[in-house]
Amino acid sequence: MALTRSQVAELYTPIYDEFLLEDFAQDSLVHPMLFQEISDSTKTYKYDGLSGLGEWEDADESSGGGYEDPVLSYPKTFTQTKKWKKFQVSFESVDQDEYALLKKQDDARQLGRGGRVKAEKDTSAVLNNGFDTAGPDGQNLWSNSHPKNPQETGVTYDNLLSGPFSHDNLEAAEKQISDNYKDSKGLPIECAYNPCLVYGPSLRGQAARVLEQRANLRPGTDHNDINRFAGRYTPVEWRYLSADLGGSDTAWFIIFKEVNFLKIIWSQRPHFTSWIDEDNEQYKFKGRMLYATGVCSWRAGFASTGL
User: Fold this and answer.
1) Hey, is 47 helix, strand or coil?
2) In contact, 275 and 103? CB cutoff 8 Å
3) Distance between CA atoms of 77 and 44, rounded to whole angstroms?
4) Count of domains observed in the chain
5) Measured between alpha carbons, how far is 255 from 191 in angstroms, rounded to an integer?
6) What does the pLDDT look like over 172-223, one tens digit per residue?
7) At 102, which CATH number?
8) Which helix (DSSP H) or strand (DSSP E) does residue 13 occupy?
9) Alpha-carbon torsion 236, 237, 242, 246, what sign?
10) Where in the sequence is the domain holding 275, given as residue range(s)?
11) CB 161 within 8 A of CB 141
12) What does the alpha-carbon distance between residue 214 and residue 167 come to, in Å, rounded to a whole number?
């Protein structure tokens, strides 16, 4: 028995779904390496940072007291928004070509690629725009004047690094991180052994010369010193940080991933739907996703414009 028009569309919908999802992750996605992924179906996702307790105090025998209240940090609301793309096939094209729907597999793949680009551009923009976009504390994400907490605004911290990426500037950055990587009570946060060094393609060679294993040579010098940076960082090259995609060819970032200050909140992950429009006599297909991305704090991230 001949297929009905609706059966023709339903036959190929699962194939399109597979094509879309394959091409969404055709290349390795970078943002999951840096951003905490949270599934949340509400319209807005609210984050209220609450500090821990401060340093312990000396106490006399049989003495009382010693209580301390946590400090509420700066809240952040993530509002999830919809992203989509569609394509359509006319009834006539199917009437005149029995393979018309099958030939649209490339359009389904393009939906996946376009969704992938959107997710990568939105997440990388958090880093790219952090030099001139305020975070929850009212300062730019990368700033030299982050207040300690809402109650002690006179004490500030600095996560804006200086200079182009180099061995010496990375060494200076480590001292700055040591002085400023503190929680909202002022306690030092222990640095991970292998934080992520994040950069665009233009810094690929420089990063390799500074980070890769070179047992007895300090990069760029004639000294036979050890390269102490070998294995110290996880290199993360991200194409979407480049100038041609809205970023910079000089900026570099140090991200302590375990703190999860970078977030992407998924309400709906990429998915594919289809329907038949009898009025306009078209098969319609749609790729769709809902998410929000941003930061809940400046802590655990440091960056330089590279200039």
Assistant:
1) strand
2) no
3) 7
4) 1
5) 10
6) 999 999 999 998 888 898 876 689 999 999 999 999 888 876 544 555 556 5
7) 3.90.1690
8) helix 5-24
9) negative
10) 19-43+73-304
11) no
12) 13
